[in-house]
Amino acid sequence: MDKLILSTIFCITNNYKRYVSTINGVDDYARTNGVTRMLISFICESKEDVYQKTIEKTFGFSRSTASNIITQMENEGLVVREKVNEDQRLRKLSLTDKSIIIYNKIREEKSNYEKIITKDFSKEELNQLNYLLNKLKNAVGKE
């Protein structure tokens, strides 16, 4: 293998960050970082209630990291922790109206960027790429 996979992943990530940094529009969107945007998208698109434990498990964050990120998002008015009737120890994460506005911009920009990066792939190649990326993600998750 001539090129390391990690350097390619880094390059793709860096190019995406560069693309996102050029986006104008929603001021609150511009002030959010990639992790915040990722969590807003995840919570908004989740079909089930999302808790801190869900965030830890899904993204591989430690308990303290997840707590710090959620607290920061809470302080910025992006999420609220709501009590759950079934278990008073649990706090469901809910997005605020501010987050919904940001999510709409995220969804639009993800769609735009997805079109840019996939335009030269056939449907079969995209299926294979998704398969391989999921395999890579699962392998990393086992470590």
Structure description:
Helix 3 (34-45) crosses helix 6 (97-118). The protein has helices at 5-21, 27-30, 34-45, 52-59, 63-75, 97-118, 123-142; strands at residues 79-84, 87-95. The radius of gyration is 17 Å and the shape is globular. The mean pLDDT is 86. Strands 1-2 form a two-stranded antiparallel ribbon. The protein has 143 residues and is mostly helical.
Summarize the structure.
It contains 7 helices and 2 strands; from the N terminus they run H-H-H-H-H-E-E-H-H.
Stretches where pLDDT is under 50 for at least 5 consecutive residues are: none
CATH fold-level name? Arc Repressor Mutant, subunit A
Q: Helix count?
A: 7
* CATH superfamily grouping: Winged helix-like DNA-binding domain superfamily/Winged helix DNA-binding domain
Radius of gyration: 17 Å
Topology (elements, then pairings):
Layout: H1 5-21, H2 27-30, H3 34-45, H4 52-59, H5 63-75, E1 79-84, E2 87-95, H6 97-118, H7 123-142
Antiparallel strand pairs: 1-2
Helix pairs in contact: 3-6, 4-5
